[in-house]
Amino acid sequence: MITRHTLRDEQVVDELLLETGSEDAPDLRAALLDLRCFVASPAVVPSAELEALMATGPASLDARRRRNHRRTAFTAVAIAASMGIGTAAVAAADPGFREHAQQAFTTVIDAVTHGYSGKPTPASGPGATKTPARVPDLPAPAQGLPAPAQGDPGRSGTNPASSPVIPPANGTANGPAPAVPQRQGNHPAPASPSFKAHR
Amino acid sequence: MDSITDDLVAGGHGDCASLFSTVYRAFSPAVAGYLRAGGVDDPEGVTHDVFLAVYPRLTAVSGGAKGLRVLIFSIAHARLVDHHRRRSRTPVPMEYDPGRDDRLSASAEDTVLDGNAEANALAMLEGLSEDHREVLRLRIIAELSVNDVASIMQKSPGAITQLQHRALASLRKLLKVETRVAS
Fold first, then answer.
1. From CA A136, how far away is CA A157, in angstroms rounded?
2. How far is A16 from B168, CA to CA, in rounded Å?
3. What distance in Å separates residue A70's CA from the closest CA in chain B?
4. Which of residues 161-180 of B touch A (CB under 8 A)?
5. Angle (CA) A153 A155 A159, round 5°
6. In the prediction, which pLDDT does B32 show?
7. Taking the model in full, what pTM does it have?
8. Which residues have C-beta within 8 Å of that of residue B19, sequence separation ≥ 6?
9. Coil vs helix vs strand at B73
10. d(Cα B181, Cα B113) in Å, to the nearest integer?
11. How is domain B106-183 classified at the CATH fold level?
12. What is the interface size between A and B, counted as CB pairs within 8 Å?
């Protein structure tokens, strides 16, 4: 096979031979010209990706990137919406789910607001009457214990005249007995003044 | 490659697609040849990889046509090094094919008599060290200067000059041995 070398091929090879002081080596020159044959390789057919880059400019590349961003955002919104619809369907189908969810929300809100959420505590039994959320300052004195003394030193600054009228706890009056204050949330139990007086 | 001028590289920043097309047509045969001379199994595929890496940097090329050539062959050199590193780690299992068995083919005389220039060149490079081979490939195929080869191979220009001296000296010895054997 006879290989034809171009003038450029010979220039490149001669330049290297001149640099290295080997201009008087015809065998070396022929060998380097053989190496130079790799430059005249057949053209490489571009891949589809390269062809796309050759056909489109950077502007359309940016547009393609923008389209990808938009598609990602749309997918995220679609996933979030479908999750919301699924959760709503489960909540609508299962009444127990709603109760549990409400209790969970109440517990969380109570924990965050330390019991001042303002919502009533759910009754423990089906027949239980609803009790006020706020606990009265002075609970009813227990039967058999003396009434708190007027001008109790432990309640300095309080006007005895303005202290609330407390009905007896045993329900002997005509009206229905008031509900026993319950301990709620993280509130400490109110200290009984009468008990304090006996200490 | 003469179609790539400094003006074209400088003026092509606005129309990247047409510049890229011209650059690909001008340089892809030389890049594929450089990779084939380097022993890459799939020179066309690696050529595609090289130009995919060139594309995003095309608008930031400095130094005109020469800078573009250095950029392209520095990427090709990196791919060649990667290829040899990967092949040395994971040898590719191949079915035995007597027709492709180098041990059964041709001695140096047969290759020379065969007259295939590329085969002659590959047989010639076989006898050199990897650094010597790479200097000759970058100088002869990529047409890069000593300074450019130095920056690509991360050596000093003086080291590259020494390498090319030694490469040609080794080549000369090999050719003398082959001539002696042939006679």
1. 18
2. 10
3. 23
4. 161, 164-165, 168, 171-172, 175, 179
5. 110
6. 95
7. 0.57
8. B8, B9, B12, B13, B58
9. helix
10. 13
11. Arc Repressor Mutant, subunit A (1.10.10)
12. 117
| B95 CB neighbour count, 10 Å cutoff | 5
Q: Cα–Cα distance between B13 and A193 in angstroms, integer?
A: 90
- Residue A125 — pLDDT band, cuts 50, 70, 90? very low
How confident is the model over A53-62, as pLDDT tens digits?
A: 888 754 455 5
The one-letter amino acid code at B156 reads S
Q: Nearest chain A residue to B145 by CA: give it.
A: A16
CATH number of B1-91: 1.10.1740
pLDDT at A170: 46
**Whether ipTM exceeds 0.90:** no
Provide the Cα torsion A92, A97, A102, A108; round to 10°: -130
Amino acid at B30: A
Helices vs. strands in chain B: H and E counts, helices first: 9, 0
